[in-house]
Design a protein that fits this description.
SMAD_FHA_dom_sf; mainly beta; five-stranded mixed sheet; Tumour Suppressor Smad4; FHA_dom; FHA domain-containing protein; Cell_Proc_Reg/RNA_Proc; 1 helix
Length: about 130
């Protein structure tokens, strides 16, 4: 199954297709974007068995690709999203769509920097198992 690399605000995450990732301002989410224009639980990214998709969960200010508001989108290689504003909202870049990658063994995911404190306290077998931030 193909991994997906997500980049935002100088951070990089490698997403595992076996789970869903929450994006938003919620500090318990997987990718936390601290911007007032981003909803608490803004969107999710997941692999549906055929492709990676992003689903906007009724966010107040929207999710945009090339200036167009989207609600559900099948991702293609090198997709750039803006959350909360079409031109200057937080940018999320997704790469590696459709590329096969080696599978990490549970507990061996590489994490150079913790995305936020609640997960840091849980360790590799906690909420971070199955994904890596590089």
């Amino acid at each position: 199954m193909p991994e997906l690399v997500l980049e935002s605000n100088g951070r990089t995450w490698t997403l595992d297709p076996s789970r869903t990732y929450a994006l938003g301002r919620d500090p318990q989410g997987d990718v936390v974007l601290d911007d007032a224009r981003v909803s608490w639980r803004h969107a999710t990214i997941s692999f549906n068995g055929h492709s990676w998709v992003i689903v906007d969960h009724g966010s107040t200010n929207g999710t945009f690709v090339q200036g167009q508001r989207i609600h559900h989108l099948e991702l293609s290689s090198d997709t750039a999203l803006n959350l909360g504003n079409a031109t200057d909202g937080p940018r999320v870049t997704l790469t590696g769509v459709g590329a096969a990658a080696p599978q990490a063994h549970p507990g061996q995911a590489h994490q150079a920097q913790q995305p936020h404190q609640p997960y840091a306290a849980q360790g590799a077998q906690g909420a971070n198992a199955g994904w890596a931030q590089q």
